[in-house]
Amino acid sequence: MHIEPPREEWLNRRLKLQQMMKSQGLSGCLVTQNVGIYYYTGSMQTGYLFVPAVEESTYYVRRSVARALSESNVKVAELGSFRNFGRQLEADYPELFGATVSEGSLPSSFSSVPLIGTDLDVMPTQLYFRLTEAVPQAKLTDASGLLRQARSVKTPYEIARIERAAEAVAQALDVGCERLHEGMTELELMATIERELRSHGHIGLMRMRGYNQEIMTGVVAAGDAAAEPTYFDGPTGGRGLSPAAPQSASLRPIGRNEPILIDIGCCIDGYVIDQTRTAVIGELSPELRAAYETAEAIIRRAEQELKPGAIPEQIYAEALMMAEAAGLSSNFMGYGRDQVKFLGHGIGLEIDEWPVLAKGFRDPLEAGMTIAVEPKFTFPGVGVVGIENTYVITETGCRALTVSPEGIYSKQHS
Amino acid sequence: MHIEPPREEWLNRRLKLQQMMKSQGLSGCLVTQNVGIYYYTGSMQTGYLFVPAVEESTYYVRRSVARALSESNVKVAELGSFRNFGRQLEADYPELFGATVSEGSLPSSFSSVPLIGTDLDVMPTQLYFRLTEAVPQAKLTDASGLLRQARSVKTPYEIARIERAAEAVAQALDVGCERLHEGMTELELMATIERELRSHGHIGLMRMRGYNQEIMTGVVAAGDAAAEPTYFDGPTGGRGLSPAAPQSASLRPIGRNEPILIDIGCCIDGYVIDQTRTAVIGELSPELRAAYETAEAIIRRAEQELKPGAIPEQIYAEALMMAEAAGLSSNFMGYGRDQVKFLGHGIGLEIDEWPVLAKGFRDPLEAGMTIAVEPKFTFPGVGVVGIENTYVITETGCRALTVSPEGIYSKQHS
């Protein structure tokens, strides 16, 4: 399933980060999260990646050094004692870290301490305090935004990986719909889809960056169960199997004439996809059909807007207006107080990447960004209808990466 | 799949935590992690749980308040603006938080600021700094150890949930072994097992506490691929599907006469199980059979030691000695520099709970603790053999929760 990117891919990613950190006055970035380390090295072993603003990067690995050596596109060093990590950095980058705390010298002025950006949005606090002790030679600062921004524009290699995942999801959806029948539980439908995804190389998990956020291959849910609100930071929740797993599929049997939400993703070679289709055994009510049509109209409008220079929050505002014009404001992207405040989200190694089509995201879109757009309408006690495609921004507009046919998937006989 | 615990279960858990925090001088605990919140409330929505050393707890929920209200065994309050969280706590617990920062009063002395324990081993640093700003009325301190310790002794309800998961794993293993055949890829075997686990109610993910640690329903791997080292904090890694998923099953076909490691778990109603069996199509070499026998001997010895009062690090030390006596020191629990330094681990809502059978764990075992014991031997280029059972400590010894038969699972025809 794994395909190696072109050799220069990894170097170019680091060069881009180096450009960005220099403009923010950072002397380097220390990446601690596995996904971030993979993005810059091609390896996901336990350790820390140091990317200086100039010079070569070093991947300090605790375990497995052997595996890192075989995979990494960055120089690997065995991480010695954690307490001496600062001294190890100082020895490897004397010009950067050496000036500050050498014994006998005058106390360094604040400005001579190198400012090192790191991923404080995910790094546990305990690790942060241990790092500040182990590396007194530097001042750590939050570079989460910069690190997320650096990954928001995808390379052709990355886009090809996402397309591979999109193909797997389309095939799994076909198998799921073929086996769908009245009385089948949500969980059975989900398990059928997951089995198919695995056979196409789904790694068995999908990564999310948000604290406490989890995803179980998406949400497969029908009727009132699909409309149950939950903590998951998306427009649909689902009843789930337990209060300890309060989202996605439940043991509820799927009935006739109720909306079946099939919001699924998978992760192939590290890259995730996100796609939603609405299905029914029998027919949906005119009200639900109309809501579904509105969702398709919103996504058509978004497709026209998605291009370099467009402002994410404006695309979201347009969608809100269209939902309002359809009289569906309180059903849009969840119901009432459980609504989420976005229309779509960046996607790549994680399912909650930047940019988000939401208020506050004002940086213009750029070619290469990949965004899942998911207009959905929730009707408590009744169900959820909607659609979701993942797009890449091109030089002139956008192109869908998801390939499943659109429209309501209607099954007359079961 | 969900079974409600006895009503007093939740209250007793909080009472125990209150006892423990008082002995450590804490005025309360603020639990931010989803698993911790579930453990004390029966609900896993987005928010924060405050457990004061005395008085009733409050579950401050951002989303979904409706869901939390329907599930929680603790009083639910809607979390207002995050910036005002301190004022909200102050209004709800005036005696605890009110004395310190009222305007116009003299600056409070340090000792009058309540010390609030929290889960800094998992809480992202960014959230920590936001909390310290939002709640200047308190001093946050690391109570990770206390929170992990509080959960290490399981109730009968919890043990019953783990047994349910053990039953599912045993049935999935049977199905996997039945369908096992020469030329089947590791991934196909894993997918077959996962499909079965899902039909028994596996929630679709297994939770780990460690930063950057992930688990894909365990490790199913054969021959040299099973012996490949990786970052996963366990004795077995596996090749995996990609450097972006560097553990567990790969696309390698399973051959004759090579060890097949089937180290699988699942999560039912929030609780996880962990079990390993060794299989082969054909026969293992005498060397591998002998290593497997040593693993069984180590687990037999551990069963004799596992009882209230036993010291975890001594059980680990004994296992090391047995491995050494068998001439297998460098193969035990991984190979060479990629060895892990433990024999077993606590298990419950997370797969990496306390206690760990490892150096430094000196607190005596207590009845109700649940521990997975996993002696394994790695032979680079050849494979991994071993066994893993999960046990509960009883009043007089231990009882296995895993139910699959032991011994090498040998399939002569495929």
From TrEMBL, chains A, B:
InterPro entries: Creatin/AminoP/Spt16_N, Creatinase/aminopeptidase-like, Creatinase_N, Pept_M24, Peptidase_M24B. Gene3D superfamilies: Creatinase/methionine aminopeptidase superfamily, Creatinase/prolidase N-terminal domain. This is M24 family metallopeptidase. Residues 13-153 form the Creatinase N-terminal domain. It comes from the Bacteria. Residues 231-250 are annotated as: Disordered. Residues 161-395 form the Peptidase M24 domain. Transmembrane segments: none annotated.
